[in-house]
Amino acid sequence: MIRIRGRVRSLGLPTVWGAAAVTYKLACPLAQETGLQARIVTSAVFFAVGTGLILHVRQSLMRELRQLRRVAGAAQSALLRPLPARIDGLDVAAAQVSAERGASVGGDLYEVVATEHGVRAVMGDVRGHGIGAFGTVAAVLGCFREAAHDEQDLGGVLRRMERALDRHLRQEHPASAAEEFVTLLLVEIRPDGEMLALNCGHPWPYRVSGIDVEQLAPGDPHPPLGLFPLPAVLPAVDLGYLQADEALFLFTDGAQDARDARGRFFPLATALTSVARDGPLSSQGVVGRISTALLQHTRGTPPDDIALLVLTNSGRTPSEARGTARTTTTHPQQTTHL
Fold first, then answer.
1. pTM for this one?
2. Residue 337 falls within a domain, yes or no?
3. C-beta of residue 239 within 8 angstroms of C-beta of residue 196
4. Of 52, 74, 96, which residue sits at a domain end?
5. Predicted local confidence at residue 54, as pLDDT
6. What DSSP designation does 127 have?
7. Do 46 and 180 lie in a common domain?
8. 252-276: average pLDDT
9. I need a surface site. Which of 141, 170, 193, 254 has the fewest CB within 10 A?
10. Which residues face 93 on adjacent strands?
């Protein structure tokens, strides 16, 4: 009812203007004359009415656009919730840039949660970008936030996410479910700094220290989630240890595939090395400088969604971590990359 009343009020002024113009044309003697002066006056009247209508429509469209942006901003805040600056001794920062102009939500996803098994993080990239990927992002993130606390190992988390994605695709995209997929990187950082991961078609992360930048690539990733069933055995791979004052840099392929006007790819490793050598590492500093460099490289118009996530070990102590680290040794397994 409120929306209907608003529509009626928005149509009231154009209706009055239109009625005034018709009345002038039909009832005003000057409008019936054919002289030059009369034609000029008549044209001025209709020009004023037309200008008023255009301005009114423009104001209405701008008002609706601002409302849509507020709704999109609220949706983004609920979906990609702002991360705490510190989670169990890790400094955390993240950023996202949507490739679809005017869209607040893209096809990239990330989350970090503190669990009794350690700090668990996910970085993912849904096929496609912009608002069209919103539903898939919501399905995958919602499942991760529950499974990260419930499952003992990353394999269990990933299987839960596979089932959630399959249900979503069959319900929302039944005709093209076989063509939809999500790349995912799951990372677990235990209280002692040990890092485990499961990768489904996603770029491997970088470990950044004050003297070195290294891309951690212990083996070929599994195919993206949704293309093929997961293997029967899902052992997590060992990424080594995140020592004090080191950062783990997670990203989506939009960062490394971004090109400038000459078609040159963004030099991500070089940019990270420059950040590492310029001073003490901080998650917010790394995210800020890499985001700025990416926007400068692409002139503010990246061709694909970009998400960045940085976890910095600022000197974790056992008292800052929840639960007890598991002692099961997990060995890496290489699979065929799609």
1. 0.72
2. no
3. yes
4. 74
5. 75
6. S
7. no
8. 93
9. 170
10. 310
Backbone torsions φ then ψ of 225, nearest 5 degrees: -65, 130
Query: CATH number for the domain including 117?
Result: 3.60.40.10
Give Cα separations from 326 to 155, 191, 194, 196, 291 (angstroms).
14, 10, 10, 11, 35
Cα→Cα distances 205→18, 30, 188, 292, 322, Å: 62, 77, 13, 19, 24
pLDDT at 334 over 50: no
Q: Over the range 103-118, which residues count as b (16 or more CB within 10 Å of their CB) and which as e?
A: bbbbbbbbbbbbbebb
Count CB-CB contacts under 10 A for residue 334.
10
Note the pLDDT of residue 123: 96
Q: Are residues 48 and 131 in the same domain?
A: no
Residue 302 DSSP code: -
Residue 65 lies in a domain: yes
At residue 268 the predicted structure's pLDDT band, cuts being 50, 70 and 90, is very high
Q: What rounded mean pLDDT belongs to the chain?
A: 79
Length of the chain: 338
